[in-house]
Specification:
135 residues, alpha+beta
Length: 135
């Protein structure tokens, strides 16, 4: 690897870490505790943050009592209520508009996934027929 490739890889890792740290901070702010771990994946216009060990003690109690659906419903309602906050924070980190934010939780294993669908890159204009947008 040449110096430029090493710098690019280092910058990419740093960016992924910053995105993961933002996802962790948002979780901590809104659920009272951070997840156990976070890892971010980026591909084209998708940013996927995978968070593990996400449930609060109250949620764990409900899950153990067979109320998993209530936890999912509450998380879905929370996501809808905080959608603008999550989008704005990720836009600030990513430097791109977030068109959509989707979130899902799984009980076993204890994992949550936040997906951010990004708009076009700032310097790219989608014009029908130029290969960057719908024809």
């Amino acid at each position: 690897m040449n110096g430029s490739a090493v710098d690019d890889a280092s910058t990419a890792r740093s960016s992924l870490t910053e995105i993961s740290n933002t996802a962790v901070a948002l979780h901590r702010e809104h659920f009272g505790r951070g997840p156990g771990a976070a890892k971010t994946h980026v591909s084209d216009n998708l940013v996927v943050c995978v968070l593990t060990d996400v449930f609060t003690p109250v949620e764990r109690t409900l899950i153990e009592a067979g109320q998993e659906d209530r936890v999912r419903e509450t998380r879905a309602a929370h996501r809808a209520a905080t959608d603008g906050i999550y989008k704005a924070r990720m836009e600030a980190v990513l430097g791109r508009r977030v068109e959509a934010h989707l979130s899902s939780v799984n009980v076993e294993p204890d994992v949550a996934v936040d997906v951010f669908v990004l708009g076009p890159e700032p310097d790219r204009i989608d014009i029908p027929g130029n290969g960057t947008g719908p024809a």
